[in-house]
């Protein structure tokens, strides 16, 4: 079976970590005869923007649509405002392709220490499900009275019953399929008095379809604190777009940092391509130094294999990452070593091949 893979390496460390990810894909082809990936690179990034005045061509989404999956490195450069690079490339892809699930595991890999380990949290393993198409990142609102003392900005939150139902159903179904019981829904219905009470209501309605799942609603401020004080108490956490964005970076931090954290932007109905990407950005502070950690990207490829239905291969990739971490010899600086991006990528590739 051949899969068409669109590759948007992006800016900064994006291309550096993507090179390691793509060599893992080649190794997967060697391991699994009959499986092949036809990759096609799209050079859409901030340099493209500076040349063309846009982040991707007018028919960019059309070009991507024909692929089975999309791999993204990272987007963003100091020369282009972040709201432009994100709103003109990443968010249009997520929305046009109904990638309404942003799936982000918070799992402490073998061989790594959590910054929380001193508290005895060795077994951190939960999943954050972030709503990815509506909510606080709405693109509705406006600015008025620029340049006057009365200048103001309004940004509307958009929550739909349809949007909340489908993300909560996904989270509940995921908990069931993982054999996990608990779903924690992030809320703030004590302070945000229209959208969040609505969110709570719909969450409770959907929960009625899943009587085996234990639901708790938890205010986002307290929930953030619980991520630190008792992270082992979570199985699946479901959150709106903004709350989920914040929680997932926190989730990444408690399991070892952004260099490790993968994500999938998933269209569960498979009507459109899903997109896999490391959570981190283009890291201008370390770009070009060849020290970026490729694990977040390689783990994202493991998630992509799971999505395509090759769970055994997805697991082999994650096992190879863990084997290298347990040996502890080859590590990039962010996880306490001195290896380069390629050295760590190669070490994982060798483990995978040797399997
Ligand atoms: P960032 O994730 O790029 O960097 C935050 C910190 O984590 C930096 O100190 C960086 O060196 C470190 N870091 C990130 N990835 C790493 C890796 N693989 N290995 C080792 N260290 C790593 O976030 P920041 O600095 O807020 O944003 C930089 C640019 O990236 C901005 O233009 C921002 O808009 C963009 N961005 C893009 C995202 C995307 O493409 N999905 C997501 C987040 C930010
Ligand atoms: Mg983020």
UniProtKB/TrEMBL annotation:
Every Isopropylmalate dehydrogenase-like domain range: 4-348
Gene Ontology MF term list: D-malate dehydrogenase (decarboxylating) (NAD+) activity; magnesium ion binding; NAD binding
Transmembrane stretches, start-end: none
Enzyme class: oxidoreductase
Catalytic activity as recorded in UniProt: (R)-malate + NAD(+) = pyruvate + CO2 + NADH
Assigned keywords, A-Z: Manganese, Metal-binding, NAD, Oxidoreductase
Needed co-factor(s): Mn(2+); Mg(2+)
EC number: 1.1.1.83
InterPro entries, sorted: ICDH/IPMDH, IsoCit/isopropylmalate_DH_CS, IsoPropMal-DH-like_dom, TTC_DH
Assigned protein family: Belongs to the isocitrate and isopropylmalate dehydrogenases family.
NCBIfam families assigned: PRK03437.1, PRK08194.1, TTC
Protein name: D-malate dehydrogenase (decarboxylating)
Species in which this protein is naturally found: Brevibacillus fluminis
Organism lineage string: Bacteria, Bacillati, Bacillota, Bacilli, Bacillales
